[in-house]
Amino acid sequence: MLARPDVLLLDEATSHLDSDSEKALRDAITAIGTRCQVVTIAHRLSTTVDADRILLVEDGWLRASGTHAELMAADSTYRRLAGRQLAPLEATS
Predict the structure, then answer these.
(1) In terms of pLDDT, which residue wins out, 81 or 12?
(2) Which residues form a coiled coil (predicted)?
(3) Do 39 and 8 meet the contact criterion of CB atoms below 8 Å apart?
(4) Which helix (H) or strand (E) holds 52?
(5) What pTM does this model have?
């Protein structure tokens, strides 16, 4: 972070964080994203819903890409994953 990279690669950066720490990291990434490209690899959709572009990979192949809203409208697998992962978070917020 101190070197101000052109591209920041985050691989499962939130996998061991609690919800509050995850949100703090997401906020920091949003701020950093104004200065460089951020590539996030994640299983938790909560870390990617605000991304400019999401790539959904299934069995090693690109299944779909788009924003969260576009994928919700167009892809049944993404909708199913979002329903499982995001609905409980939305119910508690």
Answers:
(1) 81
(2) none
(3) yes
(4) none
(5) 0.76
pLDDT of 93 strictly over 60:
no
The three-class DSSP label of residue 49 is coil
Mapped onto helix, strand or coil, the DSSP state of residue 79 is helix
Every domain of the chain and the residues it spans: 7-92
25 or 69, higher pLDDT: 69
- Per annotation, catalytic residue among 12, 22, 58, 90: 12
Q: Can you give the pLDDT at residue 82?
A: 94
Give the domain 7-92 fold: Rossmann fold (3.40.50)
- 12 classed as catalytic: yes
> Do 1 and 29 meet the contact criterion of CB atoms below 8 Å apart?
no
